[in-house]
Amino acid sequence: LWNVLLSFSGLVALIQLFFLPFFPESPPYLLLQKGDKAGCLKAMKQLWGEGNYHTEFDDMMKEKAVTKGTKIMNVLEMLKEPSIYPQLSTMLLLLLSLQLCGLSATASLQESIIPYVSLGVAISELISVILCSSIIDHFGRRILLWGGYLLMALILALLETSLLL
User: Fold this and answer.
1) Pairwise CA distance, residues 77 & 19, whole Å
2) Which of 52, 59, 104, 154 is the 20 to 30 A CA-CA neighbour of 7?
3) Of 157, 118, 153, 162, whose CA–CA distance to 13 is shortest?
4) What is the 3-state secondary structure (H, E, C) of 74-101?
5) With helix as H, strand as E and coil as C, how does 4-41 read?
6) Residue ranges per domain, the chain?
7) C-beta separation of 154 from 10 below 8 A
């Protein structure tokens, strides 16, 4: 019954796919990124119920004032910034260590092609990290979450159908 267990994650993705469009945007995102004060207050009321949220709103306004002079950078600008090199090197170390975990060797591949498979996986992970971070900057997280869950549910449904047939 492992295929039923596998389809459980597809069911969870399908449930999240249906309910995600009904959730409001994050209040800090609406205020800090979009500059929508009315939308921020509306989202606060929708998330937290009726009440007085002036303290939280004032805190977000102070944060907006502090970050007003900072520029939002894209991926290439971030790579040129020396202050993020420690975090970047930690991330690269994690990506490289995944290649040493033996995942390619356990896939029943010929020993001669395992280095190429590992290199291909590493390159595809690197490309996906760069593409995903660029896409997130352009479209925002909500659309990508919704699309990701839709794609995951579709792929798992196709996988389950192909297993049954």
Assistant:
1) 35
2) 104
3) 153
4) CHHHHHCCHHHHHHHHHHHHHHHHHCCC
5) HHHHHHHHHHHHHHHHHHHCCCCHHHHHHHCCCHHHHH
6) 1-71, 73-164
7) no
Tokens of 62: 């102070």
Question: What's the count of helices (H) and strands (E) in the chain, helices before strands?
Answer: 8, 0
Residue 102 backbone class (left: φ over 0; alpha: ψ -120 to 50; beta: rest):
left
pTM above 0.70, yes or no: no
Single-letter residue type at 119: L
Q: Over its length of 165 residues, how does the chain's per-residue pLDDT go in tens digits?
A: 777 777 777 788 788 888 888 888 888 888 887 888 888 888 888 888 887 878 888 888 888 887 777 777 777 787 888 888 888 888 777 767 766 666 555 566 777 887 787 778 778 777 877 777 777 767 777 777 777 777 777 887 887 888 788
3-class SS of residue 111: coil
Paired tokens of 72 = 């939002």
Q: Which residue has the tokens 């896409």?
A: 135
102: amino acid identity, one letter: G
Contact status, residue 151 vs residue 132, Cβ threshold 8 Å? no
**Residue 123 has which token pair?**
């390159």
